[in-house]
From TrEMBL:
Superkingdom of the organism of origin: Bacteria
Organism: Candidatus Nitrotoga arctica
Protein name: Uncharacterized protein
Listed transmembrane segments: 24-46, 53-70, 90-109
InterPro entries: MFS_Cyanate_Porter (IPR052524), MFS_trans_sf (IPR036259)
Keywords from the UniProt entry: Membrane, Transmembrane, Transmembrane helix
Length: 121
């Protein structure tokens, strides 16, 4: 749970650093980029939170479908916000806001002793 929370925190810190111009650009970009570690963590959690290969396939299919949809649409929204406002500020606020579903998902998937099959079988 600590790793999921840490990854969510560094994402928001990186984007907020970009918005407010805190520190050198390379550093805040690096900090925001560390949140990319959430993807392999989520993939690992599919297997750690299921008891069977069927359960793992089911949760992976659902989570990846939702995740790829969001990860496809949010950059489009960010580009549209930039085009409308002629500034990256609103787009960066949008990207910083992705920490909310990321943190909720992290909390849900890292609770100990919970398995998909226990809830749906």
């Amino acid at each position: 749970m600590a790793l999921a929370g840490l990854l969510a925190a560094v994402e928001s810190l990186g984007y907020l650093g970009m918005i407010f111009g805190v520190g050198p650009a390379w550093l805040v970009t690096l900090i925001a980029g560390l949140a990319g570690g959430a993807f392999p963590l989520a993939i690992a959690m599919f297997n750690l939170r299921t008891r069977t290969t069927m359960g793992s396939a089911a949760i992976a299919g659902f989570a990846m479908g939702i995740g790829y949809l969001a990860s496809t649409l949010d950059p489009l929204l960010g580009g549209w916000l930039y085009a409308v406002t002629d500034s990256w500020t609103m787009a960066l606020w949008d990207f910083a806001g992705t920490v909310v579903p990321m943190a909720i998902g992290g909390l849900m998937m890292t609770r100990p002793g919970r398995y998909l099959e226990d809830k749906f079988v």
